[in-house]
Design a protein that fits this description.
Blueprint lengths: L6 H17 L3 E5 L8 E12 L1 H5 L6 E8 L2 E9 L4 E6 L4 E6 L2 E4 L12 E4 L8 H13 L2 E4 L4 H7 L5 E4 L4 H4 L3 H6 L3 E3 L12 E4 L2 H12 L2
Parallel strand pairs: 1-2, 8-9, 8-10
Antiparallel strand pairs: 2-3, 3-4, 4-5, 5-6, 6-7, 10-12, 11-12
Length: 226
């Protein structure tokens, strides 16, 4: 399958890396486009310069830039920047706060309080993510339980989850630079995020992001039943 890398991806990451290293030359950096910078392992930056490259090159305005900071192994700071909608989401794990900045206006964002699966608005980027039998069965089963499903959102969907418009996101085959930046935003907005085992570990590349503990636990039960 086509997995395009644009000049824009590389140029954007170069700029972001440069800004980080200028301010924090001792920190580590892990990005999508270039080799990692090995620095202090207690401070690691994760960069996806254009999350949603396929959307970007086809003019679909749902792509964005992801930047996250992991402190002592825990995702602490997250940024989703959405140039096409002129929105920026920022979240702090330790402060348990997430905000959306639009044209200089700052708003706190909070996840939905919905608890009934039949009322859930569920999103994921593409069916291509679910490329093995078990993951496809999980996707099918969740789709049978929820009220509405939307696809194609890339990082934009995590902003919608944090703002209460979506209730659930399940994805697979992600990289750490896709995940670490969104963790503090989801948690800061009052949601919950984990791997498919319910753990705060993201090395397997599969995640559940949900609006609250009740929804999360119900989805874990579905996954465990497959």
């Amino acid at each position: 399958k086509l997995d395009p890398v644009t000049i824009a991806d590389q140029k954007a990451e170069e700029v972001i890396r440069g800004l980080i290293l200028k301010k924090y030359p001792e920190h580590s950096i892990i990005g999508e486009e270039f080799d990692r910078v090995e620095g202090d392992p207690n401070y690691r930056w994760f960069i996806d310069p254009i999350d949603g490259t396929k959307s970007f090159i086809t003019g679909i305005p749902l792509w964005g830039t992801l930047i996250g900071l992991e402190v002592n192994g825990v995702p602490e700071l997250g940024i989703i920047d959405l140039p096409s909608t002129k929105e920026r989401y920022l979240g702090s794990n330790s402060l348990k706060r997430a905000i959306r900045v639009t044209d200089g206006i700052i708003e706190n964002v909070v996840t939905s309080s919905e608890k009934n699966l039949i009322n859930l608005k569920f999103g994921y980027t593409s069916e291509e993510m679910f490329d093995d039998l078990r993951s496809r069965k999980i996707l099918d089963k969740v789709n049978q339980e929820v009220g509405m499903t939307r696809t194609g959102g890339d990082c934009f969907f995590y902003g919608l989850l944090s703002s209460g418009y979506l209730d659930l996101i399940i994805e697979n085959n992600l990289k750490p630079f896709d995940i670490v930046p969104i963790v503090p935003i989801v948690i800061g907005a009052g949601g919950r995020i984990s791997n498919w085992e319910g753990e705060s570990s993201y090395t397997d590349g599969n995640i559940i992001a949900s609006c609250n503990d009740s929804v999360h636990n119900q989805i874990l039960e579905i996954i465990n039943s497959v």
